[in-house]
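Before the break, one more example. Copy the sequence into your notebook; we will annotate it together after we see the structure.
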Amino acid sequence: MTMGNYTNNDLVRPKKALGQHFLVDLNIARKIVDSLSDNHDLVIEVGAGMGVLTQYLIENQLEKLQVVEIDKESVEFLNKRFPELEGHLTLGDFLKCDLTSFRAQQGIAVIGNFPYNISSQIFFQILKYRNSVSECVGMIQKEVAERIAAKPGSKTYGILSVLLQAWYDIEYLFTVHENVFNPPPKVKSAVIRLKRNNVKKLGCDENLFVAVVKQAFNQRRKTLRNSLRQMIPAEIIDNEVFNKRPEQLSVAEFVGLVKSLETKR
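Here is what the structure looks like once it is written out:
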């Protein structure tokens, strides 16, 4: 990563508590940024670190760029390195941001090298603001990326797979090896892209949908008849779908299951 006239003492120290692994390969950084479309009113970079993605986002996204960084040391470094970020850089926690306060009209794009320890929480935050976030490009742990992109029938298909695929089209873009980070993580990473699909409403109680999906996968080795026993009215317990395990159901089948629960509750 090009640092101009900065010395080692000026650079940000990766902090284990924040799950920081700084990307140092500029080709991969450019590839990640180029994976994001440009038809958004707002682009939020989560956890800029020392700005390896930021430098490319500034090139053509500066007017609509908002960088959210929780590490004070990183914010100080970014302010010095990119004075043009004034007014575009926030010291704060993305997980606590009210994304609707940005008032984006054509959707919000989220991008970042997401810390492994909060990557799932970042995606739940995106789900919370699904009517505002139209696209996300994130680098995360390879195992989590595979889980999110997994299809029904896969052993890695789970809660995030179903919930995200209900609202987004998922693409596993490419794998990233350990040696392009400082410090190198112990596992491989991957970049995925989420694009908001055309679903406005699922056609069922969406809170119940989330509750059913979570309850089913929390006991994924059991059939739905057993894992959802407390939620299933007696008159529909013989329905064939309840003989299946959760990883066998598509998003549409989970929606159908929730509808059948609603009619009997």
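Strands lie at 22-23, 42-46, 65-69, 89-91, 108-113, 133-141, 168-176, 181-182, 189-196. The first helix runs from residue 26 to 34. Try to locate both features in your own notes.
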